[in-house]
Design brief:
- By secondary structure, this protein is mostly beta strands.
- It has a 4-stranded mixed beta sheet, with helices on one face. Strands 6-5-8-7 form a 4-stranded mixed beta sheet, with no helix packed on it.
- It starts with 12 loop residues before the first strand and ends with a strand.
């Protein structure tokens, strides 16, 4: 120590770093979050969630919380893709991915269950539609005995004619494929004419 020397003293502070709930501490004089994490040898990716911005100063509580991201598969209808997420509920995950569910859509996992790495979350797109179809109805055939004809001979007395019916179906589609089709209403448009032989 010599005359006129300036001594600068910077007090270190203890910073608690939590990574997916696992806590560790570091004594540091660094203030920026990114510098503190670098000093602690903790790498973060663009997909990880950090409680404070990397370019900001650590908060007054001297705590940094990190949630590490992992990959999982998201199937939306027929579209399948790999996505990144942190540990959260299925409901929050779908919100993050901007997946909007229709009235009848369903998800392969419970909405409140927590997602895990390499999991597959499938959204089944369910559509309920009404289909009105005009269909033909077969005619009946009636056979009568006639003593004026030789045995084995036949003669058509009345030609048969198919009828018409209008059927209203309630159709359920899953990801565009029909899984259920039930008749809701049936209306006879034209009665069939019986064929008499």
């Amino acid at each position: 120590i010599v005359d006129g020397m300036t001594i600068e003293w910077e007090q270190a502070k203890e910073v608690t770093i939590s990574v997916d709930g696992n806590q560790s501490s570091i004594w540091t004089t660094e203030k920026l979050v990114k510098n503190i994490l670098e000093e602690a040898n903790i790498e973060v990716t663009e997909h990880d969630v950090v409680s404070a911005g990397l370019e900001t100063e650590v908060g007054a509580d001297n705590k940094i919380d990190i949630q590490k991201a992992f990959q999982l598969t998201l199937v939306d209808g027929l579209e399948e893709r790999q996505v990144w997420s942190t540990s959260t509920t299925v409901a929050n995950f779908l919100k993050q991915q901007e997946i909007h569910l229709g009235e009848f859509d369903r998800v392969s996992k419970e909405m409140e269950s927590v997602i895990t790495p390499n999991e597959k979350i499938a959204v089944v797109r369910v559509e309920k539609v009404t289909d009105v179809v005009e269909e033909s109805v077969d005619f009946a055939v009636e056979k009568k005995n006639d003593s004026s004809l030789l045995k084995g001979e036949e003669k058509i007395v009345t030609e048969g004619k198919k009828g018409k019916v209008e059927r209203t179906y309630n159709v359920v589609k899953e990801n565009g494929e029909v899984v259920s089709k039930k008749v809701a209403v049936e209306k006879v448009l034209e009665e069939p004419t019986k064929k008499v032989v």
